Structures are given as C-alpha cells and as structure tokens.
Amino acid sequence: MDAGAGSDGVWVRRGADVVRGGGDVDRLTSSSPEAGTRLLGGSGKDRLSVDDATSTALLGQSGDDQLRVTLVDGSARPTFDGGAGRDRLTLYTRGSTKIDLLRVDTARGRIDVDGSRVARLVRTERVSFFGKAIRAVFVGGPRADWFESAARSTRATGGGGNDRLVGGRGADVLDGGPGRDVLNGSFGRDRCLRGERLQSCERRR
After folding, report:
1. Is 35 among the domain residues?
2. pLDDT of the chain along its 205 residues, tens only?
3. How far apart are CA 198 and CA 205, in angstroms?
4. 142, 137, 186: which is closest to 162 by C-alpha?
C-alpha cells in the first residue's frame, strides 16, 4: 500500500503488509501483524507504530521520525531503522508484562530482553523506555545519544558524542563518557559520572 501525497493515517492488522508513506507527515500503524510486515515512512516527520514487534520492520527513512513499539518475546528479530534525521524509538511492554532486564546497545545495533536478542536497531538517535522492567542497561555509540528509562534501576553509558541520559525511579548509574553530556538522575539516589550538566544526581563520583 502506498499512502501517496498528503498527510495520511493508515492502520493495518492481521496480515503481511507493506505500507509506504509519502512526502508529508504520515501515521502508519500495524496491529497483530504477520511475518513480513513493513512500515516505511517517507520524507516527512512520520510516526510508525506497532503493537507486536516480533515480525515487523519499521523504516523511518528521511525526516525526524517517531517509532513506537510494544516489545514481545519472539525469534523474528525485526529491524527498527530511523533512517536519516534525528529519530526517536519509544519502547513499551504489553499490559502486565514485566521484563527483568532490558538492554539497548546502539553501538552494536541491538535490543535484548532478558538475555535474548529481540530486535535490530539502526540509525536511531533517541531511545525511550516506558514499559515495566526491573533493570535497564543502555550502551551508546560514537554519536550523540539520548536515552530515558522508566525501569526500576538504570545503568546508562553514553559513549562518544554529546549525550543526554535520564534515569528512572530507582538508584541509577549514568556515565556520560566523552563529549559534553547532560545527566538527569530523576527519582531515587543516583550516581552521575563524566557529565557536564547534572540534575538530580546525589553522587557525583
């Protein structure tokens, strides 16, 4: 399906669908997809959403895109690719589902849940996790990264670039690494290392 010109809203479900956005701001949503489903944004600032990430590829292409994903355990290992621009991936969990450990590694391009790889991550500069998890680990790459977490405890390392790291509800450890970094511990008793701008950081060494 090709959405064509104009700002479009397209919702598909229960099938192996390929949906392409156009040159404007598009909202593409897939519900209960089957293997082979792909949502492709166009050149605008698109919003791509999927409520079952086991079998769907989200490809933002150009523009500053938003990718919204509900994490589920599976073996398909879909790809989340923001494309060109400054793109954001927001991760959720379904209902009462709780994760023991979420690991997001932009340097290696992967997302793991409880020790198993669940997705491939490409060209996505900002990652937000608003699901239920006991622990979250983030490893940034050489570019500027943005990570924010709602996990009970978070350990985030920025890597190179000017990073922004935001902790969750518990005792977090945030390490900006090289670059001029912004660290925000948020709630709990947090430790912040190698950051130039610090907020809500009770321990700074």
Report:
1. yes
2. 444 444 556 666 666 677 777 666 578 888 766 667 888 887 778 889 888 766 678 888 888 899 999 887 655 678 999 988 899 999 998 877 789 999 999 999 999 999 999 899 999 999 999 999 999 999 999 999 999 999 999 999 999 999 999 999 999 999 999 999 999 999 999 999 999 999 999 998 7
3. 12
4. 142
The answer to whether the CB of 189 falls within 8 A of the CB of 172 is no
Domain carrying residue 78: 1-97
Question: Is pTM beyond 0.90 here?
Answer: no
DSSP bridge partners of 199: 184
Residue 3 counted as domain residue:
yes
C-alpha to C-alpha distance for 173 and 134, rounded to whole angstroms = 14
Q: Residue 117 has which token pair? A: 């790889």
Lookup: tokens for 34? 């089957």
Q: Classify burial at 111, counting beta carbons within 10 Å of its beta carbon; exposed 0-12, middle 13-18, buried 19 or more.
A: buried
Residue 45 within any structural domain of the chain: yes
